[in-house]
From TrEMBL:
Required for maturation of 30S ribosomal subunits. It comes from Brevundimonas basaltis. It comes from the Bacteria. The gene is rimP. Gene3D superfamilies: RimP-like superfamily, N-terminal. This is Ribosome maturation factor RimP. Residues 14-88 form the Ribosome maturation factor RimP N-terminal domain. InterPro entries: Ribosome_maturation_RimP (IPR003728), RimP_C (IPR028998), RimP_C_sf (IPR036847), RimP_N (IPR028989), RimP_N_sf (IPR035956). The lineage of its organism: Bacteria, Pseudomonadati, Pseudomonadota, Alphaproteobacteria, Caulobacterales. CDD domains: YlxS_C (cd01734). Residues 91-157 form the Ribosome maturation factor RimP C-terminal domain. Keywords: Cytoplasm, Ribosome biogenesis.
Length: 180
C-alpha cells in the first residue's frame, strides 16, 4: 500500500533506495493529478521514532530531485512534495497495525467482506498476514488480510491528538537539550 498504481510502484523503486541512504523509510508515494501539472507526494519517516524533521524532508527532496532530473521518470511538469505522514497518518505497512494498536482507523478493502468494503474501528494489531480491528458495533475482533487493503488511515481523535502533542513536546525537549 506504499504505492497505489503501477506508476507509483515504479517511482517507489527509485525513491526507496534514496530514502534508505538517508536513514529514512518511505511511508507512501502517490503521483496525483491529470495530464497537466501533477503532484508527487512522498511521505517519509525515521524508522527509529517514526518522525521526520523539516531538514530531513528537504534533504530527501533534493536527493530525489537529483535522481529524477537524470532519470526523468515522470513525463511533463510535476510538483515534488516531501512530508511527514502526519498525526492522522496512512497505515501502509503491516507493522503499522502493531505500532498504532489501540487507535481508531478507517480501512478500505479491494473486495467485499460481509457485504461491505469500508470499515472503522480500533486497531488491534496483527495476526499472521491479517490485520486485527475491533469494529464499531461488533463484539468480535475482525481479521482482514493485509493484502486485501487498498487504503487504511488513522482517524483524528482526541486520543491521537494528545499522543501527537506528547511526541512533539518530547521532540522539543530533546532539541532544546542538544542546543544547551
Amino acid at each position: 500500500m506504499k504505492a497505489k498504481t503501477a506508476e507509483d510502484r515504479q517511482l517507489l523503486e527509485l525513491i526507496e533506495p534514496i530514502a534508505e541512504s538517508l536513514g529514512l523509510d518511505i511511508v507512501r508515494v502517490r503521483l496525483m493529478g491529470g495530464t497537466q501539472r501533477r503532484r508527487l507526494q512522498i511521505m517519509a519517516e525515521r524508522p527509529a521514532d517514526h518522525d521526520i524533521a523539516v531538514e530531513e524532508c528537504a534533504r530527501l527532496s533534493r536527493a530525489v530531485s537529483e535522481v529524477f532530473d537524470a532519470a526523468d521518470p515522470i513525463s511533463g511538469e510535476y510538483l515534488l512534495e516531501v512530508s511527514s505522514p502526519g498525526v492522522d497518518r496512512p497505515l501502509t505497512r503491516q507493522s503499522d497495525f502493531d505500532l498504532f494498536e489501540g487507535y481508531e482507523a478507517r480501512l478500505e478493502t479491494d473486495r467485499m467482506i460481509e457485504g461491505r468494503k469500508r470499515f472503522k474501528g480500533v486497531v488491534a494489531g496483527t495476526d499472521g498476514d491479517n490485520i486485527a480491528i475491533d469494529l464499531d458495533g461488533e463484539a468480535d475482533t475482525a481479521l482482514i488480510p493485509f493484502d486485501w487493503l487498498v487504503d487504511a488511515k488513522l482517524v483524528l481523535t482526541d486520543e491521537l491528538m494528545k499522543a501527537g502533542a506528547e511526541k512533539r513536546a518530547a521532540r522539543n525537549d530533546n532539541s532544546s537539550e542538544t542546543e544547551d
